[in-house]
Amino acid sequence: MATEPQLYLQRDQPPGVPPLALTGERTLPDVPEENYWYRRHLVVYEWIATRVEGLHVVDVAAGEGYGANVLAQRAASVLGIEPNPDAFEHAVARYPRVTFRRDIAETFVESCDAISFLQTIEHVPDPGAVLEHFRSQLRPGGTAYISTPNVLTLAPEGAEKSGNPWHVKEYRAEEFRELCEAHFPSVEVLGLFHARKLRVHELALRHARWDDVHAKLGLTKRFYDWFTPAIGARDFALRGTDLDRALDFLAVCKA
Predict the structure, then answer these.
(1) What's the topology of domain 32-193+236-254?
(2) At what angle do helices 173-181 and 127-137 cross, to 10 degrees?
(3) Which residues contact 175 (CB under 8 A, 6 or more apart)?
(4) Cα separation of 192 and 248, whole Å?
(5) Measured between alpha carbons, how far is 128 from 213 in angstroms, rounded to an integer?
(6) Mind listing the pLDDT tens digit for each residue in 189-237?
(7) pLDDT, tens only, 133-145
């Protein structure tokens, strides 16, 4: 008999805030099993937040709202754009310092100094139209911050795409750069990499076959029940070199 897939819900939400279920379409805080992916996305929001002090920012595809809330700690104001009704209802209830609007990347209208669009362009059937729309909403000198996973480290070796059913197109570094440069006059592409304990773990998997070792010892569940929730922002690093080995790309696009 087939078993139902396990449903993960956010834990310990404030009173009146409906918890969201983990579907694989977006990442969530407050789900210990999801902490790796949440921290991997959060560290990029934290990096952007240091660059939007005093600016009006639009966070497109804001999802649960945690990223827009991080930006709001530094920005003068943040508008979160989110089409999903459940995510929108949750974000409005949980993050009162952010204004949220139900809309989509292709049609929102909001003059702004900066736009963040993280881990979403791979979901979009016409990414060029989205980037052109972003540029039209940015004030002179504004910046769009756009991130996406690296197909070379996400998909199986030699595959054009991972098995993620929500992804339309996954990018290599140069094709992602070319996409952004077709719509913005100045583009810098950075890569996100493992650091600290995640780097040690990565090397252990690659050279010491660590997964085989703890599986033989019967330690797999106990190890990851401890290791995954312990991952933090300092276990990732952004840099502009060796992009083919990056986990994700972050394009800094100047209008």
Answers:
(1) Rossmann fold (3.40.50)
(2) 50
(3) none
(4) 5
(5) 46
(6) 999 999 988 988 787 777 556 565 555 555 667 777 778 888 998 999 9
(7) 999 999 999 999 9
